[in-house]
From TrEMBL:
<comment type="similarity">
    <text>Belongs to the glycosyl hydrolase 1 family.</text>
</comment>
<dbReference type="GO" id="GO:0016052">
    <property type="term" value="P:carbohydrate catabolic process"/>
</dbReference>
<dbReference type="GO" id="GO:0005829">
    <property type="term" value="C:cytosol"/>
</dbReference>
<dbReference type="GO" id="GO:0008422">
    <property type="term" value="F:beta-glucosidase activity"/>
</dbReference>
<dbReference type="InterPro" id="IPR033132">
    <property type="entry name" value="GH_1_N_CS"/>
</dbReference>
<keyword id="KW-0326">Glycosidase</keyword>
<feature type="active site" description="Nucleophile">
    <location>
        <position position="386"/>
    </location>
</feature>
<protein>
    <submittedName>
        <fullName>Glycoside hydrolase family 1 protein</fullName>
    </submittedName>
</protein>
<dbReference type="InterPro" id="IPR017853">
    <property type="entry name" value="GH"/>
</dbReference>
<dbReference type="InterPro" id="IPR018120">
    <property type="entry name" value="Glyco_hydro_1_AS"/>
</dbReference>
<dbReference type="InterPro" id="IPR001360">
    <property type="entry name" value="Glyco_hydro_1"/>
</dbReference>
<dbReference type="Pfam" id="PF00232">
    <property type="entry name" value="Glyco_hydro_1"/>
</dbReference>
<keyword id="KW-0378">Hydrolase</keyword>
């Protein structure tokens, strides 16, 4: 018996971006401020550590009053707002089948509380989706990608407050009605499990709304509200766009035990719950029993309204979109060890793995493992909507950019995706992170580049914004054209 290790016909190859990392034009077209617009660039002392803001309202107001002498890269992005036609044409040349973008919520509802949407914002995304259609590219659209209207954060503490659930539902229904004939693939929240480590970025929570000793409870309250908002959006999407596919995204992370010690193995098992709690709820439709014990042991009381459990149960995802960048190592609390750099769910350093310039541990086999874990646990279609290598790129005197390290990284992960398909995993597509250089989420810098397309801009927004093709552009073009068969 032979096993299929080829990508299926119709596999959705492409790339992924977010509004706050590429669009710019933060004060044009009627857009309001978002939580991302007050995250400033600070010259890094250590590139392997993340800058995770958790401001107070006073700190946000101070930033807004003194912002003339500061740099806010997510306000200017790479000016996709004015360059989307050129950029989408380049993605067409790459051979993209799909392009993942996000809608800036504050571009549609500047404060988040309005009854009527901002027509200029809606019209902008009409133009973007029409341009994609013109080039035969399927939109994959995220509703909230690490930003919400800043007003909702300052007034309500973001998703910590129940009111924001209905504001999100109104926003979701608005864009579903507007783009029902243009968008069939939707994602509600980007990396929803990130809120456990970054509550401001993930949910809009600011320090004023909760005392420090109750922060863990507040995170799970915000998580519940986001999960309810996710269910409401799924319900609306299925009613408004019956043939749509909608999912909720998580950071895909696997954890290995530091040793064969049973307590290390159980620590790894528990760390996996940082992902599985969310996927269990939005895929199976109910809170898992292990979280009920966790809440009891940590004196966490999550307020649920009548009808929430039924809403979660009746409105589960059609597919599971997730990011994958690295794996982690877990150990007993008393065991020490060198910390790994990396994304929000990073743990101890793994001596068997290489790492990127930013300390992210490179583990392609971990992707195959995670794909199988998701498949066996849920038996739902999967979609890798982020994967990539952030690295320093050098522009040669002749303008060429040689990035074999990026091709090596992506090749090794694509090979493991093929193996997972051979294992029986139902994998719909693969969108690499940042196909065109963009502002880094974690460090707000341009120096950390992911793209096949180079953008002439530095960390402070200086540069011509000229787009240039790297060596990896032609490599990925060949990968897509061969449906993943030619990886040389």
């Amino acid at each position: 018996m032979t096993f299929q290790t080829k990508f299926p016909q119709g596999f959705l190859w492409g790339g992924a971006t977010s509004a706050n990392q590429v669009e710019g034009a933060y004060n044009l077209g009627g857009k309001g401020l978002s939580t991302a617009d007050v995250v400033e660039f600070v010259e890094p002392e250590d590139r392997t550590s993340m800058k995770i803001p958790f401001p107070s309202i006073d700190e946000i107001n101070h930033i807004l009053k003194t912002d003339e002498n500061r740099v806010f890269p997510k306000r200017f992005g790479i000016d996709f707002y004015h360059n989307y036609k050129e950029d989408i044409a380049l993605l067409k040349e790459l051979g993209f089948k799909t392009f993942r973008i996000s809608i800036g919520w504050a571009r549609i509802f500047p404060n988040g509380t309005e009854t009527e949407p901002n027509e200029e914002g809606l019209a902008f995304y009409d133009r973007v989706f029409d341009e994609m259609k013109k080039h035969g590219i399927e939109p994959l659209v995220t509703l909230s990608h690490y930003e919400i209207p800043l007003h909702l954060s300052k007034e309500y503490g973001g998703f910590y407050s129940r009111e924001v659930v209905d504001y999100f539902a109104h926003y979701a229904k608005t864009v579903f009605h507007r783009y029902k004939d243009k968008v069939k693939y939707w994602i509600t929240f980007n990396e929803i499990n990130s809120l456990l480590m970054a509550p401001y970025i993930g949910t809009g929570l600011v320090r004023d709304f909760v005392p420090e000793e109750k922060l863990l409870e507040a995170k799970y309250q915000a998580a519940h509200h986001q999960l309810v908002a996710n269910a409401k959006a799924i319900k609306a999407c299925h009613e408004i766009i019956p043939d749509a596919q909608i999912g909720c995204m998580v950071i895909g992370m696997i954890n290995y035990p530091m040793s064969p010690h049973p307590e290390d193995a159980f620590a790894a098992h528990q760390d996996m719950h940082k992902t599985f709690f969310f996927t269990d709820v939005f895929t199976r439709g109910a809170y898992p029993s292990y979280m009920k014990r966790f809440f009891a042991e940590n004196d966490i009381h999550v307020n649920m309204e009548i009808g929430d459990e039924k809403l979660l149960r009746d409105n589960t995802v059609d597919y599971i979109p997730f990011s994958y960048y690295m794996s982690g190592v877990s150990a007993r609390p008393e065991e020490g060890g060198e910390k790994a750099g990396g994304n929000l769910l990073s743990n101890l350093k793994n001596p068997y793995l290489d790492a990127s310039d930013w300390g992210w541990q490179i583990d392609p086999i971990g992707l195959r493992t995670l794909l199988n874990m998701f498949h066996e646990r849920y038996e739902k279609p999967l979609f890798i909507v982020e994967n990539g290598l952030g690295a320093f790129d050098k522009v040669e005197e002749d303008g060429s950019i040689h990035d074999p390290y990026r091709m090596d990284y992506l090749r090794s992960h694509i090979e493991q995706m093929k193996e997972a398909i051979g294992d029986g995993v139902d994998l719909w597509g693969y969108t690499t992170w940042g196909p065109i250089d963009l502002v880094s989420f974690s460090t707000s810098e341009m120096s950390k580049r992911y793209g096949f397309i180079y953008v002439d801009q530095d960390d402070y927004g200086n540069g011509s914004l000229k787009r240039s093709k790297k060596d990896s552009f032609y490599w990925y073009q060949k990968v897509i054209a061969s449906n993943g068969e030619d990886l040389a």
